[in-house]
Design a protein that fits this description.
The protein is of the alpha/beta class. It has two domains: 168 residues, Rossmann fold, CATH 3.40.50; 180 residues, Dehydroquinate synthase-like - alpha domain (Dehydroquinate synthase-like, alpha domain), CATH 1.20.1090.10. 52% of the residues lie in helices and 12% in strands. The chain contains 15 helices and eight strands. Strands 1-8-5-4-2-3 form a six-stranded parallel β-sheet, sandwiched between helices. Strands 6-7 form a two-stranded antiparallel sheet. The mean pLDDT is 96. It binds NADP nicotinamide-adenine-dinucleotide phosphate and fe (iii) ion (FE). The site of fe (iii) ion has 5 residues, from helix 6.
């Protein structure tokens, strides 16, 4: 047996996490805040962070306009703004989109480089420290080095991430998710769930990541009926914890085929990320049953569901509302083959196979 584990993020979890940990924000004299158009304000997190910075006598500037599925060129422009502000560190507030954007901004603020160089994970002038304050319970981005960018040059989403892009501090307060509409609560919860599930499947899984993801799947299995009913008010703490556990797990295992094959649904049709993953899940389960049956059985065992029950759950709860242009499948298949996630799965990785899978998903 051989594995490693290195996790550099300081985590503070609980209601009042920002108010109670203001001193942890003393990472410099000038902070640049990156948030979404509404999420920072709607959640209350932006006001809490500004109050904590003011109390610590830290100057701040706020960019409140990160779009969903953030665009690499926008992050480059915001990085230039942070550089002009002479930011010492970057604070991301929001769902996965602003948190991922904060990581890119932290790279571009320190390095005036072309967009494509972001994906090399090698930056001459390092990366500014990153603080993450999540307002959704889904991506686990606060606990991963990964950042998923929309990159129009290659017409898809592309990730970057290395030890340098882990947040140094993550402040998780479930209160910030009280303002999340039910549909986003559900789709982000499915993202958190898929991270835990895929972490078990990944060929990079280790006993340590299994400890995290098995435990998270057990907890998720117990709340699935209540999530389906839409009775989510009492699930906020639990969902944020599961999202965090999934994030720490995928920070080591990466995601797998389910994420890779779902990206075109988001890029070309705007399907929310968690919903896109859930929609392709029944196909993914069949693929695992054929090529990774033991790991599939382990993941389903932790969740406490059969393959048929899980497929039926997502079919009931995660519909999509478009019919794809089938002539796009060869391109989608090529893109899937280029994603690292496909290779993490232990299933076939050739583009022609993925083309067949897309035909099966949308039959
Ligand atoms: P999101 O795109 O960050 O947010 C979805 C929507 O929810 C936005 O309209 C957002 O508003 C709104 N919102 C967020 N928090 C809210 C709150 N507390 N109250 C009311 N509205 C709120 O969604 P996400 O699912 O969290 O993140 C998705 C992104 O993360 C994708 O780009 C995905 O590829 C990426 N991802 C990253 C990782 C990773 O490891 N880094 C893993 C999985 C996925 P605003 O418009 O104001 O933002
Ligand atoms: Fe995800």
């Amino acid at each position: 047996m051989e594995f490693g584990f290195h996790f550099p993020t300081k985590i503070r979890f609980g209601r009042g996490a920002v108010q109670n940990n203001g001193a942890a924000l003393r990472l410099g004299e000038r902070a640049f805040i990156v948030t979404g158009k509404h999420s920072g304000r709607a959640s209350g997190a932006l006001a809490d962070v500004i109050a904590a910075l003011t109390h610590q006598k830290i100057e701040c500037s706020v960019f409140e306009g990160i779009g969903n599925n953030p665009d690499v060129e926008q992050c480059r422009a915001v990085g230039a703004q942070a550089r002009a502000f002479h930011a010492d560190f970057i604070i991301g507030i929001g769902g996965g989109s602003p948190l991922d954007a904060a990581k890119a901004v932290a790279v571009f603020a320190a390095n005036d480089i072309p967009a494509e160089q972001l994906f090399t994970n090698s930056y001459e002038s390092g990366v500014l420290p990153i603080v993450a304050v999540p307002t959704t319970s889904g991506t686990g981005s606060e606990a991963t080095p990964w950042s998923v960018m929309t990159w129009h040059t290659v017409k898809t989403k592309r990730s970057f991430g290395s030890l340098q892009t882990y947040p140094c501090l993550a402040l998780l307060d479930p209160t910030y998710t009280d303002s999340l509409p039910l549909a986003i609560t559900r789709s982000t919860a499915m993202d958190a769930f898929t991270h835990c599930f895929e972490s078990v499947i990944s060929v990079k899984a280790s006993p340590l990541t299994d400890a995290l993801s098995f435990h998270a799947l057990e907890r998720f299995g117990k709340l699935m009926p209540q999530l389906e009913l839409g009775d989510v008010a009492s699930l906020r703490d639990e969902l944020m914890l599961i999202s965090l556990l999934g994030g720490v797990a995928i920070s080591h295992t990466g995601t797998t085929l389910m994420h890779s094959i779902a990206y075109p649904l988001t890029y070309f049709h705007g399907t929310p990320h968690g919903l896109a993953n859930a929609f392709v899940l029944p196909m993914y389960l069949k693929e695992l049953a054929a090529y990774r049956p033991e790991r599939l059985a382990t993941a389903l065992g932790a969740l406490g569901m059969s393959q048929a029950e899980l497929a039926a759950y997502v079919q009931r709860n995660c519909p999509i509302d478009f019919t794809p242009d089938r002539t796009m499948f060869p391109l989608w298949a090529e893109q899937t083959a280029a994603q690292g996630g496909a290779r993490n799965t232990g299933t076939p990785v050739d583009a022609s196979h993925f083309e067949e899978l897309y035909a099966e998903i949308f039959q």
